[in-house]
């Protein structure tokens, strides 16, 4: 049966693969792994990826790696890339060294110039988090829209209900190739710089103007949100400041703490936390996160502002006491990315904030630490002096309106990373 894998007829290869998948892999894996025939290797590997287990992962990839691309047909190349995908999906995680060698082999293939091949390559390179993909794919997303030639007239006749949207869509169709690539790349986290990120999100603005049927718009929004969730803090900050992404929508009025508050110190709050971190109230912690204004500047669990770092994983980066210290004394440690800059202008004005962008002699600075869209842009040549301020953009004393239980619920909320079932919310 392994012989049939070499057939030039795709249907026969398919049937042979399905049949072989029912046979113990130990009986046919060695034949596939020894073969030098392209079809046998490609289809055989796909079958083994489906039927085999993780110890086959590297031998299968090595065997695929023996194929000379230049000797393969377009169809065979596509199947080869799909076979690689299948091995990765079915047979488990790749470690760093395997990932590097796969990237070394696959990155040079993209872009291939063939649409179908490029779609498969983007899926694979996104999966492998290729650091060069963003840069190489962006020019393809910036291309003029290409309309798909398809006979939709028949669908139009079928049903008045979706006749309307389809008629509109035909007038203003999405570019399916761009759509496919941008959609896959929503999961790409590595290798972006801020300008590339900006260009990527601008593609969604362009695509929003195309018509793609009833759920199209929602679909795009969700894809953009996925990509935004994977963006770095710096990327999000710049995207909001430059108006590429709308800031998180915050409630118009924030809840009020019950109080009465008190002047907290790091030591005092740390001591309370060490004694009373059981039976805390998740919902109240979440409420205090808003009441103490944290939500305006910090994302947590996918929601919140972008002028400060995302705090969802802060519990993993800080010991409890250090986390408390970062909240009580924000100016004690300020990471480089969040330095407050002071621009003293020649005309005597002073601008204080975070610099988001400097191009062609123009400096753009976010001047309101609570709102990344409030920017000023000045000429570099009019800046008399530029200084770093020792004071954090995060205000101190935010906790001081909260009573002890409220303060502890807020700390517990941060420590839980957003999990309402975390130990600190269990009763004693
Ligand atoms: C006006 C905006 C703003 C508000 C409001 C704010 N923060 Fe911050 N926060 C920042 C900025 C900017 C930084 C980064 C600079 C620094 O470390 O001081 C920061 C840093 C932090 C850090 C250190 C994070 C890290 O990874 O280094 C923690 C923890 C933190 N804030 C918690 C809070 C909590 C809790 C609240 C609510 C009580 C809050 N922040 C309110 C802007 C804000």
Structure description:
The chain has 428 residues and is of the alpha+beta class. The protein folds into 3 domains: 2-93; 109-231; 267-428, Cytochrome Bc1 Complex, Chain D, domain 2 (Orthogonal Bundle). Helix content is 49%, strand content 10%. The chain contains 20 helices and 7 strands. It is globular and about 80 Å long. The model has no long low-confidence stretch (mean pLDDT 90). The chain binds heme C. Heme C (HEC) is lined by residues 292-294, 296-298, 307-309, 311, 314, 317, 323, 326-327, 330, 334-335, 338, 369-370, 392-395, 398-399.
Whole-number average pLDDT? 90
* Number of distinct helices: 20
What is the number of beta strands? 7
Overall 3D form: globular
Biggest sheet strand line-up = 6-5-4-3-7
Q: Helix/strand/pairing class, anyone?
A: alpha+beta
Strand residue content: 5-15%
Poorly predicted regions: none
The percentage helix is 40-55%
CATH class of the largest domain: Mainly Alpha
**Tell me about the biggest sheet?**
5 strands, antiparallel
The CATH topology name of the largest domain reads: Cytochrome Bc1 Complex, Chain D, domain 2
CATH-defined architecture of the largest domain: Orthogonal Bundle
Bound molecules: heme C
Beginning-to-end CA distance, first to last residue: 64 Å
Question: What is the string of SSEs from the N terminus onward?
Answer: HHHHHHHHHHHHHHHHHEEHHEEEEEH
Radius of gyration: 28 Å
Oligomerization status of the protein chains: single chain
Summed up, the domain count is 3
């Amino acid at each position: 049966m392994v012989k049939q894998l070499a057939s030039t007829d795709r249907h026969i290869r398919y049937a042979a693969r399905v049949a072989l998948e029912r046979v113990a892999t130990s009986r046919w894996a060695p034949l596939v792994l020894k073969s030098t025939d392209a079809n046998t290797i490609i289809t055989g590997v796909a079958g083994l990826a489906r039927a085999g287990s993780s110890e086959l992962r590297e031998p299968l990839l090595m065997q695929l790696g023996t194929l000379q691309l230049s000797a393969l047909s377009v169809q065979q190349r596509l199947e080869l890339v799909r076979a690689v995908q299948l091995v990765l999906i079915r047979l488990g995680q790749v470690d760093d060294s395997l990932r590097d060698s796969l990237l070394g082999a696959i990155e040079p293939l993209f872009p291939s110039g063939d649409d179908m091949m490029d779609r498969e390559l983007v899926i694979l390179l996104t999966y492998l988090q290729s650091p060069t993909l963003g840069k190489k794919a962006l020019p393809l997303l910036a291309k003029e829209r290409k309309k798909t030639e398809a006979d939709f007239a028949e669908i139009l006749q079928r049903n008045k209900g979706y006749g309307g949207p389809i008629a509109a869509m035909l007038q203003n169709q999405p570019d399916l190739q761009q759509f496919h690539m941008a959609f896959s790349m929503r999961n790409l986290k590595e290798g972006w710089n801020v300008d590339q990120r900006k260009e990527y999100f601008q593609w969604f603005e362009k695509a929003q103007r195309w018509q793609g049927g009833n759920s199209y718009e929602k679909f795009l929004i969700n894809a953009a949100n996925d990509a935004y969730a994977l963006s770095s803090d710096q990327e999000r900050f710049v995207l909001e400041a430059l108006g590429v992404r709308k800031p998180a929508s915050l409630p118009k009025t924030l809840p009020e703490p019950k109080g009465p508050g008190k002047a907290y110190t790091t030591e005092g709050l740390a001591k309370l936390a060490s004694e009373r971190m059981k039976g805390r109230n998740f919902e109240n912690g979440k409420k205090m996160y808003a009441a103490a204004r944290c939500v305006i500047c910090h994302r947590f669990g996918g929601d919140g502002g972008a002028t400060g770092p995302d705090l969802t994983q802060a519990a993993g980066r800080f010991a409890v006491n250090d986390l408390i210290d970062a909240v009580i004394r924000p100016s004690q440690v300020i990471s480089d990315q969040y330095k407050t800059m002071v621009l003293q202008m020649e005309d005597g004005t002073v601008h204080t904030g975070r610099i988001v962008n400097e191009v062609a002699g123009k400096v753009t600075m976010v001047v309101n630490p609570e709102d990344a869209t409030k920017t000023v842009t000045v000429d570099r040549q009019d800046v008399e002096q530029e200084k770093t301020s020792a004071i954090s953009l995060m205000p101190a004393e935010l906790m001081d309106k909260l009573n002890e239980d409220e303060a502890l619920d807020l700390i517990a909320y941060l420590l839980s990373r957003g999990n309402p079932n975390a130990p600190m919310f269990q009763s004693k």
